[in-house]
Amino acid sequence: MNKKRSWGLTAMSALSGMGLLLLFLLLGQIMASAAISERDSSTAGSPACEMLTDPEEWEQLYPHGSSPPKTAGHTAIYDEANQRMITFGGCTSTTSITDVQCFITDTYVLDLTSGNESWKQLFPPGPSSRLEGGHTAVYDADNGRMIVWGGKHATTDTYALDLTPCNEKWLTLPVTGTPPEGRTGHSAIYDAANKRMIIFAGYFGEYPYFRNDVWALYLTRGEERWEEIFPLDSPPDPAPARRSGHTAIYDAANQRMIIFGGVDERWETLDDVWAMYLTPGGERWEQISPSGPRPAPRVDHTAIYDADNERMIVFGGYDGHNYLNDVWALDLTPSHEEWREIFPSGISPAKRARHSAVYDAANERMVIFGGGDSDSYFNDVSALNEPLMMVPRIDKMGPALVISGSTFTYTITYENASAVTVTLSITDTLPPEATYIGSTPSGTWVSATNVVSWTIPSQAPGISGTIVLTVTAPFTPCARLINTVEMVTDPPSVLADDVWATRVRYGVYLPLILKDYD
Fold it and tell me: Phi/psi zone of residue 462: left (φ > 0), alpha (ψ -120 to 50 degrees), beta?
């Protein structure tokens, strides 16, 4: 039996007229008083209430650059090739929850280089402002683009953002086939095995309002097409209830889509979990009944797929009464799925809904941005870091931006955090565009592969050290220098590695002006 919490019948006419945003506004006064009451009675941070924490840790990030305005209802994807988060659209609020603008087509880039995170706004002509909010976006890795579909005003156009660094541009995709009915509050995943975007459910402005249909957008370049999917009947699990405001992730290891939560036709928040197996022509639904304590029913939360640990991480949302900032992990082992609440160390982000979240694979962390509660919107950035293992570890740091043709340095920091003395073997694969000058201490450089290596003998537990490399940047504007350093130990331990990315700026000196084409 699914646990549900009522949203109240008065919300139905509000959503049919103005969508989920207006629903939040109409209920604002009620929820604000409830939220204030909840905050007053909360024990978070109180010394009288101590709780054991998990190895995961919250970290608030303070990116350089000009950050986006306070935003909710936007979308975000993780651009893996360039290690950055791309955000698009949504609603913004500059002063209060009543000062909201929703016809926003702003596009921002958050460079996720650890320790050098930075915001940058892109200015390509954007998709129609009729998207407003409640649209979805996926990362099409094969074609290096972000795919955006749906939104508040029921548009059926499909948009693509070309993610070529320094040459990003929006396109309206010429898609064949009959598209789904326009909607908001649906979910979308990228089915990498079959090169298609899968959308599920959502809210439509006409009866029956809520949907539970499934559609695929095949994304082979030049052959993009829509196709409705009719999952095989598989009693007793015919299909999830109609809903909106749920989440979906792509479970790559098991080739299935996992959905969780949302709000149904009776305006009740949900906590059910479903899997759709994605074999083309043999798609089928299966309801999952995880063991362990269950998260509160919720809507407008976020979820990401943690591939390394075979789990789905859920954060925040709204449960029908209160905004949330709890963290849950769903172990995705087939037939042994299990919920577990996570209690990270560090300072938790404020309670919120309608925020975005991506999984930053390079740094093994979930990154959340924006969202809001009944009082205000946010534009802060937080990261949920995965636990560090007690093994030798290595980090690499360097400049986030360099001038083309200039000489600059990288610094490698290594530490033996294990309990035994080890010999460290460190290799640094420099980007092929960079020219190696030298290092302190000196290493062995193989020019054919642009790899430098060092051997650090008899490294006692707790001992750390540094290596400084000097390289010359290429004369290539907008190049992204990917630099990978790895370390193995003797006796054998877990391989440690780190990746650093440096963007090259093309500087042209004019009288009294340095013009930057980045």
Answer: left
Rounded to whole angstroms, the Cα distance separating 54 from 398 reads: 31
Tokens encoding 347: 């300072």
Q: How far apart are the C-alpha atoms of 145 and 159, rounded to whole Å? A: 10
Exposure letters 181-215 (e unless 16+ CB within 10 A, then b): ebbbbbbbbbbeeeebbbbbbbbbbeeebbbbbbb
Residue pLDDT, tens place only, 96-151 = 555 667 767 789 999 998 888 999 999 887 675 555 568 999 999 999 999 999 88
pTM score: 0.75
CB 69 within 8 A of CB 92: yes
**CA pair distance 475, 461, nearest whole angstrom:** 42
pLDDT for the residue 433: 79
DSSP state of 307: G
CA 214 to chain centre: 23
Distance separating alpha carbons of residues 151 and 103, to the nearest angstrom: 11
Helix or strand or coil: residue 193? helix
In whole angstroms, give the CA distance from residue 56 to residue 482.
Answer: 27
Q: Please report, for residues 187, 218, 267, the alpha-carbon distance to residue 215 in angstroms, rounded to integers and kept in the order given.
A: 11, 10, 24
> Residue 37 carries which side chain, given as an amino acid letter?
S
Q: Are 433 and 483 in contact (CB under 8 A)?
A: no
Hey, is 333 helix, strand or coil? coil
The owner of tokens 């890795």 is: 141
C-alpha closest to that of 259 among 278, 240, 242: 240
Q: Which of 333, 331, 304, 300 is nearest to 74 (CA)?
A: 300
Q: Give the number of other CB atoms < 10 A from CB of residue 432.
A: 11
- In the chain, what are the domains? 5-385 (2.120.10.80), 393-516 (2.60.40.740)
HEC sequence for 133-156 = CCCEEEEEHHHCEEEEECCCCCCC
The Cα–Cα gap between 318 and 320 comes to 6
